[in-house]
Write a structure and sequence with these properties.
The protein is mainly alpha-helical. The protein has 3 helices and 2 strands, in the order αααββ.
C-alpha cells in the first residue's frame, strides 16, 4: 500500500491537522514508512506466543473479598455538620 500526497492531505484533514502543501510529500513518505513497518511486523512468527496484557510481569494487589460488618455509621456521621435519623442532612435545593 502506498500513500500519495492527496491521501496524506485527506488524512491530515480528517485529523484536523493543518499541513502546508509543501510538507505533504514528506508526510506521505512518513506514512509509507509507518505502513512498511506494519507490513514488516506481519512477517513475525507469533505461533505459540501468548498475548501480553502488560510489559511487566506483575499483578495488582487485591484485597480479600470478605464481608465485614460495616457498622461505622455513628463514626462516619460524627463529622457531619448535620445528621438526622442516621443520614447526612442537606439543605433542600429543589422546591
Amino acid at each position: 500500500m502506498s500513500i500519495d500526497t492527496s491521501t496524506a492531505a485527506r488524512v491530515a484533514k480528517l485529523a484536523r491537522i493543518r499541513v502546508e502543501a509543501d510538507a505533504l510529500p514528506a508526510l506521505a513518505a512518513e506514512f509509507n514508512t509507518i505502513l512498511g513497518f506494519i507490513e514488516q511486523l506481519g512477517e513475525v512468527d507469533v505461533d505459540g506466543v501468548a498475548p501480553m496484557t502488560s510489559v511487566t510481569p506483575m499483578r495488582l494487589p487485591r484485597r480479600a473479598d470478605e464481608v465485614t460488618d460495616g457498622g461505622q455509621q455513628a463514626k462516619v456521621l460524627s463529622n457531619a455538620p448535620d445528621a438526622r435519623e442516621g443520614f447526612f442532612a442537606v439543605p433542600k435545593v429543589v422546591e
